[in-house]
Amino acid sequence: MSTTTATLPFRIGEPDIECRYPVIIGKDRVIGQAMRWHRDWLVVTTEGEHNLRRPPTGTKGIDMAATYLVEEYAAGAIAAVALDQVRAEAPQPLHGPVPLLHPRMPASARNLLGARIAFAGLTEHHWRVVLHGFPGSDNPWYLACELCGWSGVRYWSHHRGRNGNPPSIYRHDGGCIGEDQVRELIAAYQQ
Fold first, then answer.
1. CB 56, CB 65: distance < 8 Å
2. Which among 58, 124, 140, 151 counts the fewest CB atoms within 10 Å?
3. How does pLDDT run across 8-57, given as a tens digit for each residue?
C-alpha cells in the first residue's frame, strides 16, 4: 500500500537580480529559492544550497526545483522565512568596480579570457555590469543599458553576435531608444 502526500499549494515569485526565484507558500512564506547555473538547477534553503542537477527531458527546471522544495518542507527538512526578509537580504547593485569573474566562476585562463572579451563587448555595445563579474555565456547577468537606463537580466550569449556579425539590434524588453538611434551610436552596426 502506498501513501501519497498531498501537495502543498505554492507559487513562484519574482526573481531577484541574481535570478533566484522564491518559492512561496501561504501569503508570504518562502521555503527556498531556485536558480539555474550552467544548465543545473540549484535551490537555496534554510539548510544551505543543494544542486538538483539537470531536469529530466520535458521537465522545466523551475518546476523540478519547486517540487523538491515543497517535498523538503512537507518532510520538515527545511523551514520557511518571510518574503520580506528574503527581499531585504537580496543582493543589491554595486556602485563601483565590478570584479572580472562571478564568484562561482573558477579563475582559469579560459574564464579570464572569456570575461575580458565579454566586458569589452559590453562596453562597445553600451552595457554596464551592475552585479558580479562574468558568469559565463549562458548564465544570467544583471546589466544596465547605458542608452536608456533599463536594467535587468541578460545573457552574454545573446550579446556576443554570431559568425562575425554584431548582436541583434534588439536590446531588451520594454523598448530602448529605437533601432535607428542604436545603429548611430554603436560602431559595430555602422559597418
1. no
2. 58
3. 899 999 999 889 999 999 999 999 999 999 889 999 999 999 999 999 99
